[in-house]
Amino acid sequence: MKKVLIHGSASVEQLILSFPALHVLKKESTDDEIYLALFDHTKEAAKYLACDIKSLFLPVKYKNIFDAHRFVANIKSLANIDCFLDFESSVTSSFAGYNLKSPIRIGLKHGAAKYLRGENISKYDFYDTAAVNLVEQYLKKPIHDIKVMASDKKPLKADEVFIKGEFVPDYVLVILNELSFLNKHAAFFRALFDGIDNTIVRIVYYDRGDLTLQLNEIRDLHASYNSSNKYEYGFVSDHTFLINQIIQSKGVIAEKTWHSLICSYYGVTSFSLEGVWRLPPQYFIAEMNSFSIKDQGEIKLIGSDGEIGIDTFADLLNEKFRI
Q: What are the structural domains of the chain?
């Protein structure tokens, strides 16, 4: 049995894109002890990983080789690490692997970090491809035709947290970080919901904030929405709650890219409103799309030429979500 320590990426999005590589490693190395080192700001996203890998937490302050040295000193219980897989591939992460004195240290060929490792692979355009290739390098075998879906579409447990309305599956899910986003783009959402008819629209928030104030604002917004739809509102209590909402929806509109990536990982088509993600996941089954809300009611789909109107975008949602 070997001990394998994976240094996770500092990017939440890249951490999620490494999930397929972690699935492959877990499947192919059933006898190995596998650990995943996480940054403080990536711990929440790691909860959505649907395979059993032990977590270690990097210090909140983790920016240089001295911080890396302190991290290694604090995990002496993990002595004799056989392999250090560097998914971060920074100088700091590479120095951590160097201090662990692992006989196998593999990472991306990136800057000065490459001199602190025994093996390097060329950097890839797609991060998930790079992560899979790091695992291939460790396993010494090629991995073909990977497609990962974390869910079998069955709820993990019952939820009773909706502010109003009974639980009804088969809805369009909207995941927002806070209510202010809905207010900021009120005209966009009003026009979008006008293009969706006779559908349940479930809007959930990650930040509970001032609950009374938000409920009052929700009611005001709700009054202006297409009345042929049914609107339900809730707050994300934990990751299990959100997984349940995702896997039982027709499709998801998410404010943040990392939520959209989680949807793709769990087999549900999604659209991210953050408008910054140009590289689609390579190993998830479900489609992920990125768009940004432009002026004058137009939408910019990332990766496509030109802009489209909200009515055309609503037609696209009806098609993708099979509303």
A: 3-139 (3.40.50.2000), 172-321 (3.40.50)
Rg of the chain over all Cα atoms, to the nearest angstrom = 21
Q: What is the pLDDT of residues 115-127, one digit of tens each?
A: 667 677 766 767 8
The answer to whether 261 and 153 have CB atoms below 8 angstroms apart is: no
Q: How confident is the model at residue 144 (pLDDT cuts 50, 70, 90)?
A: confident
Alpha-carbon distance of 14 to 87, in angstroms, equals 9
User: Residue for token digits 């700001």?
Assistant: 41
Number of H helices, E strands in the chain: 12, 14
Q: Which residues of 98-125 are buried (b: 16+ CB within 10 A; e: fewer)?
A: bbbebebbbbbebeebbebbeebbeeee
In this prediction, residue 214 has a pLDDT band, given cuts at 50, 70 and 90, of low
